[in-house]
Amino acid sequence: MSVNPNEQPGPEGEEPKAAEPPQPAGPRETPETPVAVPGPMPPSVEGGESAPEGAGSSPEAAAGAGGGPDGRRRLADALWPPRVTRAQLVVALLLACLGFGLAIQVSSTSEGSALRGARQEDLVRILDELDDRTQRLEDEKARLEKQRSELESSSDQAEEARRQTQEKERQLGILAGTVAAEGPGITLTVTDPVGAVESDMLLDAIQELRAAGAEAIQVDGVRVVANSYFTGGGDDMRIDGTQVTAPYVFKVIGKPEDLEPALNIPGGVVQTLEKEQATATVERSAKIVVDALRPAKRPDYARSSSP
User: Fold this and answer.
1) Which tens digit of pLDDT belongs to each residue from 208-261?
2) b/e for 126-140, b at 16 or more Cβ within 10 A?
3) Cα 81 from Cα 60, distance rounded (Å)
4) 202 to each of 56, 278, 284, how far by Cα in Å?
5) Rounded to whole angstroms, how far apart are CA atoms 223 and 251?
6) Contact call for residues 227 and 195 (beta carbons, < 8 A)
7) CA-to-CA distance for 255 and 253, rounded, in angstroms?
8) Which of 83, 195, 203, 248 could cross-link 234 (Cys pair, CB 3.0–4.6 Å)?
9) Are strands 236-239 and 242-244 parallel, antiparallel or unpaired?
């Protein structure tokens, strides 16, 4: 019994069915799909990336999107002409007043800047000098008030006025150098072995002594008064035209506990002289005699107005 190779065996008890003949090859039917018509491709971007969106848009759209001339024109129109409201004017006025106040505050604060860099010793000395000057002014005030009360309570006011006038004349004579004086004070001796001391150094010493309350000063037999001047230096030192030589001896009447510290402050007269290889020694004394006198100068034009 021949077997057809195209027959497939079926289940048991059934006859094999004949295999279906192969279908002839031909075109298959496919569902109809729309086909897009290719259009112009956008310009390629370097690196294989596609062109950014909107690259092919119109110049007007690009100007509006990128802030071109239209954007700058709108910004200029918004800023000019300026539109100032009342609230903005009030705020500007307040800011101007605040700046003016800050400038005044800074200016007033900077006036005391000279003392910011001072050392503690200098600040203490300045404070002590202010206290001493305040005390001297208080003493002068008390003295004048006492004189006024004596004049008011005296039975012979003319005699009391004459006595006070004579006392005032004696005090003015001491200041003018026409009257000798004595009292507590110090003796300042300045030696100058190398001749390095100049006139301005001695003048600084006089200024420091006067600031400390010196009432009468004499240097090497020359009375120093308000209009005294120093010239020269070294071997030709002169005071009011009179030559003086080292060692220079200052006789000063005043409060010793005020005069000595004024010369020995850091950076003061003593240290300045020591830098010039000169030496300065200060000695306190309970009695200093200032007997160098200056001739009383007669005024050329001034006359007393009292009858």
Assistant:
1) 999 888 999 999 999 999 889 999 888 889 999 999 999 999 999 999 988 998
2) eeebeebeeeeeeee
3) 27
4) 94, 12, 19
5) 10
6) no
7) 7
8) 195
9) antiparallel
